[in-house]
Write a structure and sequence with these properties.
The chain is an alpha+beta fold and 531 residues long. Helix content is 38%, strand content 18%. The longest helix has 18 residues. It starts with 10 loop residues before the first helix and ends with a helix.
Length: 531
């Protein structure tokens, strides 16, 4: 059937497209039902099908985007940008810093807004806008939302379909704050186009304005026309390397470029290699081998504290494969933010073209498993967490690079749980709790999941019938994380094992009260019935 213009479609034709998508997924992509069940997906399909007669074209498209996004794999996405349904965009580029969402770049027509903090869209607080927009973003974790999903906030059609705008309109009023002053500005959306960005960063020019001081640039924003470049920092005896795609640079392919990197390290006074992958959204993961093997061979820097890797919210796809391999096979110390992708993930999508609208649903088919399943997680987290405020960005500071340069293996604990276990087994039990408390409150460990690590250790001890040690870890978890329902399920388990059934009931009741409608609450309810 030839594709019609989307605006000509009637309800029956949209429903046929929906049915085609549903059947294609069940017949050819049923393996994607991991984070959502087939029945949950079909229920969402049924709700959209029933709503279609009352929806405008853009609302149906956004509804389809929600369905595809429900699989929560970044490569599995509806091709809303392909123009099958007209789409508009506010001429701004947003970025979420530690202290809020700011206008990082803007069209020259609104140059005075560069650097303003976004508070509201059409009177709705931006935190609520993000909450309502979240279901349409095909995100594997919250870092993906920060990196790639925040741009959805600039599409009026999405804002309307997600009930943020009461009507589908082009003129959108933003509430902004700058220098302590709050004002409202109305911007006109333009037909969606590719704004001048590279690796998510605005490229200032005749029509676009950046919010930072562009008379100079930090290393990670220099030579953005290059995929890869390196620079020697003689005072620190460090070699800084930025690679922003897993692709060959026009000046040198990956093997040639990194051959030069490792030769420079061997032939010069280099004490530390810093590989910056924070802007790297992927490419061809078959090109990762020369990087990984080169680090392994270069014993001079393949040591803790000598090889630093900066990661962040745009580290995705083939670059996720790269950091997985560096984590497994080298002594890399990771700095920055967590990556935008699950450690193991579905990638390499194929288009399923809907027969009437011509919309493409890009559906992932390849399972990439670099780590054993028990090491899978929502992201690869940094050993050393760093963020960035807008003021740091505006003034060209780079907290991640500063932390990488300052890092010393003697002053940092790379694996907190291993360290605490060593204290415990060596008889220094009195040091375990204060050491854990210090690390939990230390922002450097912001992305280390202490609660999960304690819970796993305690349950392993419980399974081995080491009740005293298990109780010690469970009780420590309850002291540090008293508002987490799962912690109290753990306490209930140890009390039940010890035969203290009344205390077990109290713990399970506590878990149930903290999470009455959630998974932990359901487990507590089941455990109470078993007592």
């Amino acid at each position: 059937m030839p594709c019609l213009q989307a605006q000509e479609l009637n309800s029956q034709q949209w429903q046929q497209d929906l049915d085609y998508l549903q059947k294609t997924i069940h017949d050819e992509y049923a393996f994607l039902f991991k984070k959502i069940t087939a029945s949950e997906f079909d229920e969402k399909v049924g709700a959209l099908r029933a709503a279609i007669p009352k929806l405008e074209d853009h609302e149906v498209m956004v509804g389809l985007a929600r369905l595809v996004a429900s699989f929560e794999y970044g490569h599995t996405v509806l091709g809303y940008w392909e123009g099958k349904v007209p789409l508009h965009e506010l001429p701004i580029v947003l970025y979420q810093y530690d202290d809020g969402i700011f206008i990082q770049g803007v069209h020259r027509d609104y140059a005075e807004l560069a650097g303003a903090r976004l508070l509201e869209i059409e009177g709705m607080p931006v935190a609520r806008v993000l909450e309502l927009m979240r279901p349409v973003i095909p995100a594997e974790n919250e870092m993906f939302v920060k990196a790639y999903g925040i741009h959805y906030l600039t599409f009026p059609e999405f804002l309307h379909a997600q009930k943020i705008l009461s009507e589908n309109k082009r003129d959108i009023t933003l509430t902004l704050e700058e220098d302590g002053q709050i004002r409202r500005e109305t911007l006109s959306a333009v037909p969606a186009e590719r704004f001048p960005r590279r690796y998510g960063m605005v490229i200032p020019g005749e029509d676009w304005v950046e919010s930072r001081d562009t008379t100079r640039s930090p290393l990670y924003l220099r030579q953005l026309d290059r995929i890869s470049y390196y620079e020697y920092l003689p005072e620190e005896k460090a070699l800084y390397v930025r690679q922003s795609q897993i692709m060959d640079d026009e000046k040198a392919d990956i093997p040639t470029f990194f051959k030069g990197v490792f030769e420079f390290i061997e032939q010069n006074d280099v004490d530390k290699l810093i590989l910056d992958l924070r802007l790297n959204g992927g490419g061809n993961n078959y090109k990762n081998k020369p990087i990984v093997t080169g680090v392994i061979r270069t014993e001079k820097i393949n040591k803790p504290g000598k090889f630093m890797v900066i990661i962040g919210r745009r580290t995705f796809s083939a670059c996720q494969n790269l950091v997985n391999e560096l984590s497994s096979y080298t002594n890399a110390v990771f700095v920055g933010e967590p990556t935008a992708e699950n450690i193991n993930f579905y990638g390499d999508n194929r288009p399923a073209t809907l027969p009437n609208s011509g919309l493409n649903a890009y559906l992932s088919f390849a399972w990439w498993q670099d780590k054993p399943q028990w090491e899978n997680g929502p992201w690869l987290a940094p050993h050393l967490a760093t963020g960035m405020t807008f003021e740091q960005y505006r003034t060209n500071q780079d907290p991640a690079l500063e932390a990488a340069l300052a890092f010393s293996d003697s002053t940092f604990i790379l694996n907190p749980m291993d360290h605490l276990t060593e204290l415990f087994t060596s008889g220094k039990v009195d040091q375990v709790k204060p050491t854990a408390a210090r690390m939990i409150s230390d922002p450097n460990y912001a992305f280390y999941n202490f609660e999960q690590a304690f819970d796993k250790t305690a349950h392993n001890l419980l399974k081995s019938n080491r009740l005293d040690e298990s109780y010690f870890v469970f009780s420590m978890n309850a002291e540090f994380f008293p508002e987490r329902a799962g912690v109290w399920n753990g306490m209930g388990a140890i009390y039940a094992k010890q035969g203290e059934l009344e205390k077990a009931r109290e713990a399970y009741q506590k878990a149930l009260s903290l999470d009455p409608g959630g998974q932990d609450g359901e487990e507590a309810r089941r455990r109470l019935q078993e007592l």
